Write a sequence for this structure.
């Protein structure tokens, strides 16, 4: 288990770095897909099978493949080199560095967290999630439909041709 | 709670009314629905109950803010009757999206769980990203929509990360429990919790456009269709501040010293940056955007003065500010139309000569924004300052008063244009409904200044 954890983490970190450093958009997307698959492996290690499956189907299967299609259809698969002024680069590095320091300080001094609830091995299974969604989290679950309908209305508004 | 359910369903009904192919019925139907929602809201006054495993708390605070936002939205829909007359497509969608956004705003006033706050902010934001791009053929509208979407998702990511960190530390989303969890540390918070709270505050500050998270607002205000800008400047700001107040009041107060200092610095920065940038603006919408940032500073001042009456002061301030802003946008759109699409301040030239009564009402409204007596804007600022002084924040109050005085300059710069004669006067047409709106809002701004209200919330 520990070995698997470190293996998956290493794959994730390497792929995430390659997403940033690779110049070709298609390679970027493929590395991101690999990163997502490794993340799904983490979910399985945590006994959250449902989340892992949904993650693969939705993010990897649907969204990232859509990305890939868009890149191919729009013929964007050329290496792009961004040229930025020195000021932008330096300020970006400084900002990112400060952000990294804050996060590092926060995680380095992290205190031991005592789990409030005992670990429940069923929590990641379909029945557990279903009970949580239609029990305690019923209202957020239902009200998020407003979010989706407004997003769909937006897609129709922008996508439809006005005659 | 029935009001929330009704308005969520009502948005879909308005969406379907678009099939009727009759634009004239949309605004009356939408306004009728909002009136029913208002009645349903007021019915719950004084009851104070929690719903759905304490996800939502309907108390007097949320009802008062909801009713205030409903009144403002009704005014905006009345403005829309004329505004959307020339628009051929997707008018029903515009109304429906604004109602959906209002649903999100309702959640933001009545959440007691960080999940509901997140959903509320998103339900408010996503219709706004779409509405900002409502003029599909306009390049600037597209830019506004895209910019708002990108920066908004960025801030959402921060906000969500903050929630995750706070949950990781405290293992709860429920605000009162987070409050007791924070209290046990006596001000020495563990770093993970601290970073989480900071990220949550950044996310909310972005939504209300507090400096230094204000960079999106002038561009979006300028590019978005004027009616949407009016909606963003009023309803969205009110909802954002209600959410901010509830977050502090229910969850985070008394703030840890480091976060409180951060918020005070943000207050001072909003006042300073907004004022300095507003002095330089020649575009009216950008001017109002920067003035909105300054007003954000005043509202933050009221909110950080931790007192029971702060909620009422905040409600009065946001309501009065919205009441003065909407007719200014109405006047602006008619001047813009008569100047053939120009948005500079020079388009107000010759207003006094042609329509003296509009110029008079514009004076009242701008005086209210600047905070001059006897308008209600003065009373709002006066209440904020007395509240801040009574809590012992003398230095920042003096700074805010100086900033309020500087603000008079750029509001009166607009007025000077309105009272200057134009070289080539264009005919200004103001339809009856919009004229009535300007008059009613102008009179209400004065009356609310004479008879101030405080609501026990």
């Amino acid at each position: 288990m520990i070995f698997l954890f470190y293996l998956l983490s290493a794959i994730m970190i390497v792929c995430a770095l390659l997403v940033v450093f690779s110049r070709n958009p298609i390679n970027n997307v493929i590395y991101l897909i690999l990163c997502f698959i490794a993340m799904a492996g983490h979910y399985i290690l945590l006994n959250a099978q449902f989340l892992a499956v949904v993650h693969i189907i939705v993010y990897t299967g649907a969204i990232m493949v859509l990305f890939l299609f868009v890149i191919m259809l729009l013929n964007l698969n050329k290496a792009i080199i961004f040229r930025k002024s020195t000021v932008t680069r330096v300020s970006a590095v400084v900002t990112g560095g400060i952000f990294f320091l804050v996060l590092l300080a926060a995680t380095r001094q992290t205190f031991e967290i005592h789990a409030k609830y005992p670990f429940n091995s069923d929590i990641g299974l379909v029945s557990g999630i279903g009970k949580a969604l239609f029990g305690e989290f019923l209202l957020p679950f239902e009200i998020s439909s407003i979010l989706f309908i407004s997003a769909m209305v937006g897609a129709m508004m922008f996508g439809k041709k006005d005659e | 709670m029935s009001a929330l359910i009704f308005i969520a369903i009502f948005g879909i009904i308005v969406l379907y009314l678009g099939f009727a192919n009759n634009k004239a019925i949309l605004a009356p139907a939408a306004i009728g629905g909002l009136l029913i929602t208002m009645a349903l809201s007021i019915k719950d006054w004084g009851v104070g109950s929690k719903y759905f495993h304490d996800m939502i708390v309907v108390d007097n605070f949320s009802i008062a803010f909801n009713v205030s936002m409903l009144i403002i939205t009704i005014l905006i829909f009345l403005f829309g009757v004329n505004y959307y007359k020339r628009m051929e497509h997707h008018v029903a969608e515009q109304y429906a999206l604004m109602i959906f956004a209002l649903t999100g705003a309702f959640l933001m006033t009545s959440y007691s769980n960080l999940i509901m706050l997140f959903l509320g902010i998103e339900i408010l934001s996503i219709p706004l990203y779409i509405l900002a791009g409502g003029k599909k053929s306009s390049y600037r509208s597209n830019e506004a929509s895209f910019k708002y979407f990108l920066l908004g998702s960025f801030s959402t990511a921060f906000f969500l990360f903050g929630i995750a960190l706070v949950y990781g530390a405290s293992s709860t989303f429920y605000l009162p429990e987070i409050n007791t969890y924070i209290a046990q540390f006596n001000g020495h918070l563990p770093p993970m919790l601290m970073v989480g709270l900071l990220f949550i505050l950044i996310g909310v500050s972005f939504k209300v456009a507090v400096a230094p998270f204000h960079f999106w607002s002038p561009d979006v205000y300028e590019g978005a269709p004027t009616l949407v800008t009016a909606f963003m400047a009023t309803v969205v700001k009110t909802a954002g501040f209600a959410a901010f107040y509830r977050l502090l009041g229910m969850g985070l107060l008394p703030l840890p010293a480091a976060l409180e200092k951060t918020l005070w610095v943000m207050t001072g920065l909003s006042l300073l940056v907004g004022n300095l940038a507003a002095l330089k603006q020649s575009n009216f919408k950008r001017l109002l955007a920067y003035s909105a940032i300054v007003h954000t500073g005043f509202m933050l001042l009221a909110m950080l003065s931790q007192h029971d009456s702060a909620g009422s002061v905040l409600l009065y301030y946001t309501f009065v500010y919205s009441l003065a802003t909407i007719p200014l946008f109405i006047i602006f759109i008619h001047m813009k139309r008569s100047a053939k699409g120009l948005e500079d301040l020079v388009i107000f030239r010759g207003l006094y000569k042609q329509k003296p009564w509009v110029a008079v009402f514009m004076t009242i409204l701008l005086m209210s924004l600047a905070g001059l007596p006897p308008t209600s804007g003065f009373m709002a600022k006066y209440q904020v300052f007395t509240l801040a002084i009574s809590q012992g924040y003398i230095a920042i109050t003096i700074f805010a008063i100086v900033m309020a005085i500087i603000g008079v300059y750029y509001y009166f710069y607009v007025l000077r244009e309105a009272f200057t004669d134009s070289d080539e006067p264009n005919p200004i047409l103001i339809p009856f409904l919009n004229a009535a709106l300007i008059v009613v809002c102008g009179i209400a701004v004065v009356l609310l200044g004479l008879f101030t209200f405080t609501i026990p919330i």
